[in-house]
Amino acid sequence: MDIRRLDEADQTSGGLAGKTALVRVDFNLPRNEDGSISDDTRLRSALPTINYLREHGAAVILLSHFGRPTAGKSDPALSLAFVAGPLAEAIEAPVRFLTTPNINVLDDLGPGDVLIMENTRFLKGETENDPDLAKELAQFGDLFVMDAFSAAHRAHASSAGIADHLPTYAGLAMARELDHLAQALDHPEKPVMAIVGGAKVSSKIDLLENLVTKLDRLAIGGGMANTFLLAKGHDVGKSLAEPDLLGKATDILKAARKAGCEIILPVDAVCATEFKEGADTRVVAMTDAAKGNVKANEMILDVGPDTVTELMDAMDKSKTLIWNGPLGAFETPPFDTSTIEAAKYAARLTRAGKLIAVAGGGDTVAALNAADVVDDFTFVSTAGGAFLEWMEGKPLPGVDIVTKGQSA
Ligand code: ADP
Ligand code: MG
After folding, report:
1. I want to staple 165 with a disulfide (CB 3.0 to 4.6 A). Which of 138, 174, 279, 391 is the partner?
2. Pairing mode, if any, of strands 299-303 and 268-272?
3. 223 lines ligand 1 (CB under 6 A)
4. Can 24 be counted among the known catalytic residues?
């Protein structure tokens, strides 16, 4: 992707040495009840950029939101102070914490020093992208580094507005994420397929509409497949489905046909009368020839084994796979079967160098973790909302500010 990268920052206008870099990171870290960090993925992903800047002689001021405080109000329970210790340990250097933006702090900030500012959402104007706040924050740095793709879908002062006032670059984690996403959807190795699953069509209409114009094939699974099956004249019993969206589902199928995108719908389904762990199940054919198989008291909770075989064939025929949304109610075994089998197959093809596999979405990452394939996939994005908006083809404010030819 044509973005402004950190090495460019180092090569232009006198380099990074002696400068202060304002870096937008995502320290919205999940915490245990005792306050400790339960998953430090986001902390670790910020380290390459922090280390790069320090090694090149810059001082680093980190900006991040944490949780959802009432906009513009401090809330001690949502302070970012807890990150200073673990970050200091990770970079093996002291980390200072700044409760309120105070410009005097720059007087004793030297090359390689690191400072975290308090939760940006405590600041009035942050979530409204107030230009005055953006300007005030920009005074703390000589350059702005956007390294939080997961916050790139929001036009906030600390993730977008600052870029109006400072030279802006993509951090290393951000650049890595954008490169992988561009490789998967903007200029993929073809044929390219997607698997879209999850609970509801209504949450993913934009995404489906965008994908059918870009893909060679699109497999629809999970609860959202039920609405499509219903539109094709199948019974779905008590399954999760959105009958008011039958027209929309039909439109999407039509648009796919017009765009030459093959649609793969489940050819069989795993049904149960009870949605609970270890429930008795029954596999039901869902082909055009077989209709009315699902009984009124049954629910479709996973796609069936023949569908998994079809998905595997489709993966064999594709060079790129984009995956969002589990194929079944994977949190409740045995309804995790198809998601895990399909994920393991994608992982095997990727390991063998036959497939580029990119996945994202909150529950999707959990499902891929359950299948133990995250490390085998080419790239797994932990940016839930931003990843979905990227799949929807929407412009992301935090990406625009690091893209060449866009305003910044
Ligand atoms: P993501 O967070 O990865 O974007 P979604 O939030 O769209 O994914 O969907 C995930 C949810 O969909 C999971 O909680 C899963 O249990 C549910 N789901 C998948 N298939 C079914 C189904 N057949 N019936 C009910 N829920 C389902
Ligand atoms: Mg979800």
Report:
1. 138
2. antiparallel
3. yes
4. no
Determine the pLDDT at residue 118.
Answer: 98
**Structural domains in the chain plus CATH codes:** 6-175 (3.40.50.1260), 188-391 (3.40.50.1260)
* Of 363, 381, 382, 388, best ligand 1 pocket probe by most atoms within 8 Å of the beta carbon: 363
- 32-38 long-range contacts, Cβ below 8 Å, gap at least 24? 35/82, 37/82, 37/86
Q: What is the pLDDT of residues 145-200, one digit of tens each?
A: 999 999 999 999 999 999 999 999 999 999 999 999 999 988 899 999 999 999 99
Note whether 271 and 210 are within 8 A (CB).
no
Q: Is 325 a catalytic residue?
A: no
Structure tokens at 325: 């949304």
Whole-model pTM: value is 0.91
- pLDDT (tens digit per residue) in 95-112: 999 999 999 999 999 999
How far away, in angstroms, is 380 Cα from ligand 2 center? 15
Q: Of all protein residues, whose CA lies closest to atom 4 belonging to ligand 1?
A: 361
Mean pLDDT throughout 263-271? 98
CA of 229 to the centre of ligand 1 (A): 16
Token reading at 82:
């807890």
Closest C-alpha residue for ligand 1 atom 10: 198
Asked if 217 is an active-site residue, the reply is no
Give catalytic status of residue 362 as yes or no: yes
Per annotation, catalytic residue among 57, 72, 112, 362: 362
Q: What is the pLDDT of residue 7?
A: 93
Q: Is 105 helix (H, G, I), strand (E, B) or coil?
A: helix
Cβ atoms within 10 Å, residue 363: 18
pLDDT per residue over 195-247, tens digit each?
999 999 999 999 999 999 999 999 999 999 999 999 999 999 999 999 999 99
Q: Output the CA 245–ligand 1 centroid distance in Å.
A: 17
- Tell me, in angstroms, the distance from the centre of ligand 2 to residue 367's CA: 11
Asked whether residue 11 carries a pLDDT value surpassing 50, the answer given is: yes
- Percent helix, strand, coil in the chain, to 5, is 40, 15, 45
**Active-site residue among 19, 24, 42, 121?**
42
Q: How confident is the model at residue 407 (pLDDT cuts 50, 70, 90)?
A: low
Confidence check: pLDDT of 19 > 90: yes
Q: Among residues 200, 232, 238, 295, which one is catalytic?
A: 200
At position 63, the amino acid (one-letter code) is: L
Query: Is there a cis peptide before residue 191, judged by omega within 30 degrees of 0?
Result: yes
Q: State whether the beta carbon of 361 lies less than 6 angstroms from ligand 1.
A: yes
